[in-house]
Amino acid sequence: MSVTTTPALLSAELVRLGAAPADKEATIRQAAQLLIAAGCIDPGYEASMLRREAVANTFLGHGVVIPHGLGEDRNLVRRNGIAVLQIPRGVEWNPGQTAHIAVAIAAQSDAHIAILRRLTRLIQDESRLVSLFVTDNAQDIVAALSDDAPAAASSGPATDLAERFRWTVSYPSGLHARPAARWVETARGFSARIQVRNGDQVADAKNLVSLLQLGLRAGDVAMLSAEGRDAAAALAKLRSVVESLSAQEKRDAELAAQRAAAPSSGWTPPQAKAAIVGIGASPGLAIGIVHRLASHDAEVPDHPVPLTEGGAQLHEAITATRLQLKAVADDTARRLGAADAAIFKAHGELLADTDLITLTCQLMVEGHGVAWSWNQAVERMAGKLSALGNAVLAGRAADLRDVGRRVLANIDPSLRQVATGELPDNSILVAADLSPSDTATLDPERVAGIATAQGGPTSHTAILARTLGLPALVAGGAALLDLKQGSAAIIDGQNGRLYLNPSPADLDSARAWIAEQQTIRAREAEQRAMPAQTTDGHRVEVSANINLPDQAALALSQGAEGVGLMRTEFLFLERGSTPSEDEQYETYKAMAQALEGRPLIVRALDIGGDKQVAHLELPREENPFLGVRGARLLLRRPDLMEPQLRALYRAAKDGARLSIMFPMITSVSEVIALRQTCERIRAELDAPALALGIMIEVPAAAIQADALAQHVDFFSIGTNDLTQYTLAIDRQNPELAAEADSLHPAVLRLIRQTVAGAERHGRWVGVCGGLAGDAFGAALLAGLGVSELSMTPRDIPAVKARLRASTLSELRELAERALKAETAADVRKLDLAAEPSS
Ligand code: PEP
Ligand code: MG
């Protein structure tokens, strides 16, 4: 990344040559005065810079120091800037460390890393650096520091700002990362300085780590205050967000409590005594074998590289991780739901922590390798969080380590820790802690349960285990880690117990209990497995949106009749590199095999818009949603499209039952060009012909559906994008989220038009956007003539039940009324009016 220094960030006025401060404190004060005089910081920031020295060392190495304020005082930074004090005779910073150049930083978090990068580069150039210690031309220093820039920092007294309100924490689990990330997101929408105070600790409301460090627990009184042009509006908005999250937090806690309680409905072993007693985190009983996972803090080798290289590597790894986390959040939202996805959104915020980046750079300057330095910095900070004796903060240590591992894998792919790969069947995973990333990607078919030494029932890992329906116990203690690999065990996730080497009587009893539970579940599954057939016999296909073969089992168990959307871009997004044709072939083949002959619709790469792939280094676009995305990119990049098509046709030739679908189609000419490529590749491989479909995601395609239908075998409507482009609402804009309603009559009319166009040429129409997974939306779509609905697996049972409760004519009538409605709200009202016949 190159951040261009603006003249205001470092100019000759901000450089003092020939300074001779008596000591470290005088150095910081003089540098702070320069920043104050330039209007970069409030005077209070000076004290914050001094306070930071008491808790952290800002000596970067090679005679360079980087004093800056505490993260929580960032609100005292008026604008980005850096001030430089040249100290030819040097000043003792710490025993044995002499500073000749003090670079005082006032900057935003992202800018901080750019400045450090520039400095590490400079340090590498020893002769230039030494010349700066004595130069009498301030421009030399300005030039040396002026490629990369911006900065951040703060200082902060425990006083409140002008506008304020008091709030008693009503979140039963305290202010943890998910709600805190929402606060941060809201606060960042305003220019006002916004802070949160807990006792005499103050945090910047725009910085997640700072907020979490307040350790706010239920019942604590927080003071939220703001200052600046839009302070009142900011606080009003923040207040509504803070309060509105309360209901959800309480619901989550109640649910967790209900699940944790009711041991009476649980299982009691006839003979065994529990070997491990922890806390029940996800209910259920399972028999399996202990599979201990290697500790995550496995050795990270220390391979020093030139600093210039190291700085760039770190920066790229952090940028790539940010994009991957966005992709994981996106994928988790589509598979497990928005609440679980918020975990990974919050993880992204942890990457913006300047302390973490500073510490890493210091270690690099000391001569350590990038990966080692990053790992150390993460471990030290996570250790600090765990040591504070606050359960909320201890839970965040696991999050920090999780993010840390992702960055590590991006610095050096050989450090990618596939902690959960290659599991034996029926594993009871035993680990010190399990990261949310690992948990989200577990295959519930192979894993019987999870037992961790650390963690809490509200940890993200526990939340994800519940979503996946895996029994889990947490806080089992260190003894858990001494268990013998491969021991037979019974895990009781309801009561948080692990029984080792159970007797035949215990096993029988456990099997009987599990069988009883399975009968109950089978009854539920039966309902899910039944076809979505209306009472008058009209059948709608119901499929799942999944991306990986190991997600198929869960989808089928929810009642999926196939896969209606396999988003292949996730194969590219999450791994940080482009999968080869062979790797793709294996994946598509495995997916088809996992579906055992059921239909599979694979969507060709849909990159661009909200799905940016860092390693492809595509040109930056002003407006990526209206840019080269989906089919437009495929047509411009045969190097991406053709290996994918070859992999698909090869899989088809090997018997995979699949169809190919192209995203973001706008015109007939695109379809013709894509078909030609498919046909050429098919002929080259002598593969069977495949059904080729397109997504209807832009109004142009819906309006011209009759023309497009002549050239394709099927349509699948992407209501997420169709809504975005019809209503001109960015699908990622939280402010407009409520208005981006796919039930808007304009969207419904375009769907109607699509169906009519397809019918004219005997084509079928599916829907794979979010509306398909909404029970009422599904009913409307069936009434509009859609014949296939594809959705997140967990939405399938409710959708099927809704469709099975009506006649087709009722659904058609419902659709007719919806088409005539004036607003989305009027359409919603029909939901209440239209009670299905029973
Ligand atoms: C859609 O746009 O509705 C869709 C299914 O595609 P995606 O969400 O992947 O853009
Ligand atoms: Mg789309």
How are the elements arranged and paired?
Blueprint: E1 15-16, H1 24-37, H2 44-55, E2 59-61, E3 64-65, E4 81-94, E5 97-106, H3 109-124, H4 126-134, H5 138-144, E6 163-168, H6 177-187, E7 193-198, E8 201-204, H7 208-212, E9 221-227, H8 231-260, E10 276-277, E11 279-282, E12 285-292, H9 307-335, H10 338-350, H11 354-365, H12 370-387, H13 391-411, E13 427-431, H14 436-440, E14 447-452, H15 460-468, E15 472-474, E16 488-492, E17 497-500, H16 504-529, E18 532-533, E19 539-545, H17 552-557, E20 563-567, H18 569-573, H19 581-594, E21 600-603, H20 631-636, H21 638-653, E22 659-662, H22 668-685, E23 692-696, H23 699-703, H24 705-709, E24 714-717, H25 719-727, H26 745-760, E25 764-767, H27 775-783, E26 788-791, H28 796-804, H29 808-820, H30 824-833
Bound molecules: phosphoenolpyruvate (PEP) and magnesium ion.
Number of helices: 30
Oligomer: single chain
Shape: globular
Largest sheet: 8 strands, mixed
Query: Which ions and ligands are bound to the chains?
Result: phosphoenolpyruvate, magnesium ion
Measured between the Cα atoms of the first and last residue, the distance is: 61 Å
Task: Describe the 3D structure.
By secondary structure, this protein is an alpha/beta fold. The strands form four sheets. Strands 10-17-16-12-13-14-15-11 form an eight-stranded mixed β-sheet. An eight-stranded parallel β-barrel has the order 19-20-21-22-23-24-25-26, surrounded by five helices. The chain has a five-stranded mixed β-sheet with strand order 1-4-5-3-2. Helix 22 links the parallel strand 22 (659-662) and strand 23 (692-696). Helix 11 (354-365) packs across helix 12 and helix 12 runs antiparallel to helix 13 (391-411). The longest helix has 30 residues, at 231-260. The protein starts with 14 loop residues before the first strand and ends in a 5-residue tail after the last helix. Magnesium ion is lined by residues 697, 718, 720-721.
